[in-house]
Specification:
The structure is a homodimer of 165-residue chains. By secondary structure, the first copy, chain A, is α+β, with helices and mostly antiparallel strands. The first copy, chain A, contains four helices and six strands, in the order ββααααββββ. Chain A has a single domain, classed as Thiol Ester Dehydrase, Chain A (Roll), CATH 3.10.129. In chain A, strands 1-2-4-5-6-3 form a six-stranded antiparallel β-sheet, covered by helices on one side. The longest helix of chain A has 16 residues. In chain A, 38% of the residues are buried. Chains A, B: Belongs to the enoyl-CoA hydratase/isomerase family.
């Protein structure tokens, strides 16, 4: 079970969280998620069957000195922490995409991972004022503070509905 | 079993393919990969448990009129076609990341998917002349030519070793 690791968290719970609750400059951390060799192999056999990801014998003599996880597996792990803790369960509309996705250090079996999410930008849509766009710097960090993946995510979120008087 | 769909494919087989074989302007297509509702649910339950991805009942009344796959599932499917057909099994060194990742249309159960890979740029490293960087525009296309995912991938690849005389 993962949880908030930071000094602060959203005051609004994830099932009553709206565009308005994503404030520029806010930073949150969630974790810890661990990843096993078996999970790395299972992901890679399905989606990324390169020798460095599926063949521990080959990988030990390779450039990383052992098996490493697919970069897209790291993306999935980051998404899991975003879905469980950061991204509203009621206001999330869609994501047009992400920018500057980087794999700075390998994902390795036994890694203990946490997510750091920083709200870079938050603005109401001019054409559709019932929603806004939130830009988030997402970093998945390991036990040595290296980042197996980082990216800048864009998300459309509905604004908080008007309360009845 | 997926295969080359285009008029042309690499002349070098994937297990003897090197940096030199990625020529600017070349474009290849591979497929078809199908995705089922069960696969969409299985991915999302593990990595992206948002209602629109894991709850068909909720999703039918949602903005997309039905269940849609996680954007990161689309990334995994694109990677599978890249690994099976495009990315050298012997010369691939690592990828520093991707840029401009976009989810233009939803991934839906029953989609028949193909990969289009276009070599945008190919240049030998100045600091390490035994390798080069290849920049590829990657598009995963569905049966209507919509792109559930596209991105610009960077890959380091070893140059072809010198032949003995």
């Amino acid at each position: 079970m993962t949880r908030s690791l930071g000094a602060t968290d959203f005051t609004a719970p994830i099932d009553d969280r709206w565009f308005d609750d994503y404030v520029e400059g806010a930073q949150y951390e969630y974790g810890l998620l661990t990843v096993s060799e078996e999970e790395i192999l299972r992901y890679a056999e399905q989606f990324d069957p390169q020798p460095i990801h599926i063949d521990p014998g080959f990988a030990v003599s390779g450039p990383f000195g052992g098996l490493i996880g697919s970069g897209w597996h790291s993306a999935g792990l980051a998404m899991r922490l975003l879905a469980d803790h950061y991204l509203s369960k009621v206001a999330s509309l869609a994501s047009p995409g992400v920018d500057e996705l980087r794999w700075k250090v390998p994902l390795r079996p036994g890694d203990q991972l946490r997510l750091r999410a920083t709200v870079l930008e938050s603005r109401v849509s001019r054409s559709k004022p019932d929603r806004g766009i939130v830009v988030t710097q997402v970093e998945l960090l390991n036990q040595d503070d290296g980042a197996p993946i980082s990216f800048r995510a864009m998300n459309f979120l509905a604004v908080r509905p008007a309360q009845n008087p």
